[in-house]
Amino acid sequence: MNTRHLRRVAVAVSAAALLPLALTACSGDSDTSSDAGADKAASSAPAKATESAATMDEPFGPGCASVPKEGAGSFKGMAQDPVATAASNNPALSTLVAAVKQAGLVDTLNSAENITVFAPTNDAFAKIPKADLDKLLANKAELTKVLTAHVVGENLTPKQLEKGSFDTLAKTKLTTAGSGEEYTVNDSSKVVCGNVPTANATVYIVDTVLMPAA
Questions:
Q1: At a CB cut-off of 8 Å and minimum separation 6, what does 175 contact?
Q2: Alpha helix (H) ranges present in the chain?
Q3: Residue 94, Cα to own-chain centre: how many angstroms?
Q4: Are the C-beta atoms of 67 and 73 separated by less than 8 Å?
């Protein structure tokens, strides 16, 4: 009886000694797994936020596909030059550039700081009957008024365009509406490639010339 009793005591002591070790090992595995999950969640959240912020800062719109991928007319190239010079390197804006030169506004636009230009494409100018466009190009004062009605004296973000009303350099009102990647200017002109950076301006390329009220 004494021998059997001693064996039972020995088994009980051994089990008691091993139990804390087993619990510690389990606890360590659980903590490691929990910490790994927390680290993974923490690292993925900032990455997603950064990706979202980067997307908001980039040019957007269907018309952006026609912008050259490399060279002075690319987004990277345009960002290095002041706005009139940058526009001259974009083939889709050649009519606008010719009009800006005709009005003598190249230096004015290039030397301005933190402005926004709503730049009509060649197709936008083509919507104007040729006789009317020729007449406009021949009248420097009127041409200047039309062109400066496309310029706002502050740097506008896409968020500000959601429901905006802004004073232009022509002292006219310019209104915007929309969200995401779809915006309308003055209820008639659509942004086809927006949030394009230049050295001194943000450019929103539009599909219709903005004619100020008489």
A1: 164, 165, 166, 185, 186, 187
A2: 2-56, 75-78, 83-88, 94-103, 106-111, 122-126, 130-138, 140-148
A3: 24
A4: yes
Distance CA 174, CA 186 (A): 6
> Tens digit of pLDDT for each residue in 165-188?
999 999 999 999 999 999 999 999
Type of residue numbered 6 = L
Q: What percent of the chain is modeled with pLDDT above 90?
A: 70
Instruction: Give first-to-last CA distance, the chain, whole Å.
Output: 118
Q: What is the tens place of the pLDDT at every residue in 93-116?
A: 999 999 999 999 999 999 999 999
Average pLDDT over every residue of 52-72: 80
DSSP 8-state class, residue 72: T
Q: Where on the phi/psi map is residue 60: left (φ > 0), alpha (ψ -120 to 50), or beta?
A: beta
